[in-house]
Each structure stands twice: as structure tokens, then as C-alpha cells.
Amino acid sequence: MAASMHCRYRNDLAELNRLAADIELFASEHGVDHATAHSFNLCLDEVFTNSVSYAFGDGRHHEVRLELRATPKEIVAIIRDDGKAYDPLTQAPAPDFHSPIEDRRIGGLGVHFVKTLMARVNYRRENGWNILEMATTRPPSEAEPEPSLPD
Length: 151
Description:
151 residues, alpha+beta, Heat Shock Protein 90, 5-stranded antiparallel sheet, 5 strands
């Protein structure tokens, strides 16, 4: 059985602290180890920052939604925004690892980190919403036990 948490944030970078606190709370409530929680925080910080920085060009208030789920086998995050359609998995430029560091453009590693740190990442556009789902596998020692049925 999956446990979940649903959160809503304004399209404002000031919400990053609340996002991090929600991830920490979810991790502690569901026995998620520190390294996994840290990876999720890093990835969601990147995705949220990109969403707030680039998805909304109208100057209006928008909402970014986050769902966190813990199953016995994985931790899943689904982040949604109603900004401009953008698939970061296929449209973000690939990072430049070959040029000397002083010649590289600033940025461009965030999506690479998300793809590297997560076991799976998927994007879809649905009913005017960008939906990015990412998941990581729980180590067997961390997996939540299946609930037992009463006798």
C-alpha cells in the first residue's frame, strides 16, 4: 500500500524552503534514508526552480503541485505545473563535459543530475499541465513492511 503526501506551492522561489521541509517531513514519516531524501531534495529543488524560473511568463500567480509516494519498493515524486509546455528530458540541452570548465556555459547540469540520481524519470503533458514523475528504488533494508491483516 502506498502512503502519499500532496503539497501545493506558489510559483515563487521563496517556496524552496517549504518544499525542502515537506520532503524532510515525508522522509522521516516513511523511513526514507538520509541519502535518498537528499537526492529527492536536490532533484525537486532543480525541477521546482526551473518551473518557477521559466514556465510562467505571464506575471500571474500559479501553483506548482507535488505528490510524494512511498511504496515498499520505491519513493516517487510527481511535480505538476500549468506553465508553458516543456519536456526537460528531451528539450534541455545536453551538458558540456568536454570543454574546459572556464569555457562552459553556466547551468545545464540540473536535468543531468535528475536523470542520474533517479531510477526513472518520465515527462508528459496532460490537460495543460507539465507532469514530471521521478522515482528511486528503496534499499531492501529501508522498505516499509507490508501492513499485516488482522487475524
